[in-house]
Amino acid sequence: MKQYFSFQWHITDECDQRCKHCYIFSENSNKKLDAMSWQQMQDTFYNCLDFCKVYDRLPYFYITGGDPILHPDFWKLLELMRQHSVPFTILGNPFHLTDEVCRKLKEYGCEKYQLSIDGLRQTHDWFRKPGSFDITLEKIGCINRAGIRSVVMTTVSGTNIDEVPGIIDAVVAAGVNVFAFARYCPTSAEKDVGIEPLRYHKLLSDCDKKFREYEAAGCQTYFNKKDHLWTLYEYETGAFQISEAVEDGMIYGGCNCGNCHLTILPAGDVYACRRVQNSKVANVFTDQLSDVWVCQMEQYRDYTKFEKCSKCELLAFCRGCPAVASGKDGDFYAADPQCWKEVS
């Protein structure tokens, strides 16, 4: 069976918000806003399809920005994807969603629409935009009514970690289909996630208990344990076990960077991971992605270089979040700062 290859495609920087932890605006509020032209979007799309033909993969797109719906050729792009039967998810804002817009998204083939909630009302609106907490919860129903799977992602930092259980309650009450969280990745070396390892372990423990309670009560929300430190947590609690059939040198899970993912920005820059600030490897307007994958991307596949993970029995399954490690000191292979496991 063919495997999927995912492209996180930022078609525009244009956005209704200026979030305090945004990769686009957090370091430079006066940044020039980039957006692809329609010709560049077509060239990028076919470059991605050619890549998948070369490596016998199925394409999957995460269309985002900024807010992708603000791009003047947004609907033309979705029509192009529909013509080629390519599946996609939208990562965007809630502000321009209506029942009609969501119905149209569904007709074009949108499978999921991901929104962000980064705290309870006061904290979220401080991070993002006044009023956006209530609007986001409201639009979950709008997405659901169209038959699109609604997703809420929370970016966890020292600022909002105590509010995550309350966020779970709020999104479940709103009827979200999928909930997940990931950690904030610092955008410059002097910044930090602001969470001690054992505090993060406690968050996972608290959330695991809450997830189980909701599932036992028949809750229909799927709790996506996205952060790879969930693997370590479940290994220690016995929920995850290493199979005897595991082969040396094989990678079975963990971070997809260097494995089945690339990020493309509006100016054409290609990143190994959007969350790894120094991971630019090419430009989609001048480089063939199929060449980039076997050349520039090799530097993200040397698993023996992981400072801490290479000594851990979970190397093939976890590896924490290299983006968080890189955000702390610029080293992709450094130890995950929230990993509590001691290795020797």
UniProtKB/TrEMBL annotation:
Superkingdom of this protein's organism: Bacteria
Record-annotated Radical SAM core domain positions: 1-220
Keyword presence, S-adenosyl-L-methionine: yes
Keywords: 4Fe-4S, Iron, Iron-sulfur, Metal-binding, S-adenosyl-L-methionine
Cofactor names: [4Fe-4S] cluster
A Pfam family hit: Radical_SAM
NCBIfam families given in the database record: rSAM_ACGX, rSAM_more_4Fe4S
Name of the protein described by the UniProt record: Radical SAM/SPASM domain protein, ACGX system
Species in which this protein is naturally found: Ventrimonas faecis
Source organism phylogeny: Bacteria, Bacillati, Bacillota, Clostridia, Lachnospirales
Gene name as annotated: acgM
